[in-house]
Amino acid sequence: MQIKDLGEFGVIDLLTRMVVDQRASSSNGKTFSLDLSVDTGDDTAAWSAGAKAVTDLFTTDTMVEGVHFTRETTPWEDLGWKSLASNISDVASMGGLPTYALVTLGLPPETEVLDLESLYKGMLQISNEYGLAIVGGDMVRSPVVFITVALTGAMQGQPMIRTSARPGDLVAVTGHLGSSGGGLKLMLENPSERGEAADFLMRSHRRPRPAVTVGQSLVESEITTAMDVSDGMADDLSKLCRASGVSAKIFADRLPVHPILKNRFPHDSVDLALGGGEDYVLLFTGSPSKVNHVVSGLTGGAAVVGEITDGEPGKVTVVDAQGIEIPAGNRGWDHFGPAQA
Fold first, then answer.
1. CA 95 remoteness from chain centre
2. Within its chain, how far is the Cα of 157 from the centroid?
3. N or C terminus of the chain: which is more exposed, having fewer CB within 10 Å?
């Protein structure tokens, strides 16, 4: 059997079981009173140091040329920005602030020095804006470009996690969905297009803005269940539901689609909102009174988009304004499915 036969969920389940079941019961962390509060399977791992009020976060992510990006759709400077944005978003989804980053680069020997400088220019731009520091890393020869970032974060209080959604909770997002996917679609179909719509959509894809401040506000509002939308709204909600042992329903007519995306891709905007990915807004759940109150205080496309239900863990149903189920189709990124340019 090959990993493509298991699919991403199957691979994650296999490795999670091995890690949890086969690792030693004690660890060096316990020697230093580091108490693990969020284990493998969430957006980040988390631990606290003894009596300190600060919780440390740790996450890692990799971008591979030809799998996650191409040089035609993502210039070097924007690649640098995005390689850190995905990690910062993971920390944001827990309610934390990013602190330090280690960067590992895989580069073909023919890589131009100017391109490498542009890559790090983008990394430093987002690092300086979000208050983190690149403190080291590694570099290896590779047939294709890849970037692995290991990022630490910190927060006060308890991290938001995926495992506490309950039937009756509302599902909400903190911003517009589908704009990044719309940018990729535009560049693949009409790369020479220019204008306000093209600029907005390409910028949404190339320069996503992690919701760090919003994540902190969710923790302050006592939201306990959240994750970021990186692989697609429907797919990521399914992951949250699997972790919580519940199902969910998404109301397609309530999805916050930016007017520019809706006007440029009127027939595809809902599918892009459900499965486009790399929006890096936050998806969260909670009691109706709490979620409605939180959403009323947010701007930039925040909306209630669904509800948590009893049922098969991980099953997500999408319904239209009349309550009729919309066929699923391909709504999310599977890391072991067919490669996407």
1. 13
2. 21
3. N
